[in-house]
Amino acid sequence: MRLYSLSVLYKGDPKVHLLKAAYDVSTFNFFQRSSVQEFMTFTSQLIAERSALGSRASVKEQEYLCHVYVRSDGLAGVVIADNEYPQRVCFTLLDKVLEEFSRQVSKMDWPSGSPATISYSALDEYLSKYQVQSPAG
């Protein structure tokens, strides 16, 4: 069971943009990592864009399961995991991350924010904390 990406996005007008993200692409071939990361960023934005405010969903994309939560204030979170990762845990993680993010990052910064301008460093920590290590790994 693995988590591959955890993203915080803002669903504003006219489109969704990434505020902060963390990736774990260590299981991929070195030469595939940047394209896998790009795919995850693109997929996260697309899923958030297609989800209504105040909704939660799980979407299968290739061999991944993408869990999205879009709050009614436009803040959205996406977790990309493998098919075995428990859905309930993904939504618990998204709730926690979005709640903490909204307390630490001013709502004024969401519409114009980007990964370079938003200072919120907990995503990498959450991604590794929620990573389920297989007994063999």
From TrEMBL:
One of its GO terms (biological process) is endoplasmic reticulum to Golgi vesicle-mediated transport. It is a lipid-anchor. Its main location: membrane. The keyword Chaperone does not apply. InterPro entries: Longin-like_dom_sf, Longin_dom. It is found in: Endomembrane system. Pfam families: Longin. It comes from the Eukaryota. Keywords: Lipoprotein, Membrane, Methylation, Palmitate, Prenylation, Protein transport, Transport. GO terms for molecular function: SNAP receptor activity. Residues 8-130 form the Longin domain. CDD domains: Longin (cd14824). Belongs to the synaptobrevin family. PANTHER family: SYNAPTOBREVIN HOMOLOG YKT6. This is YKT6B protein.
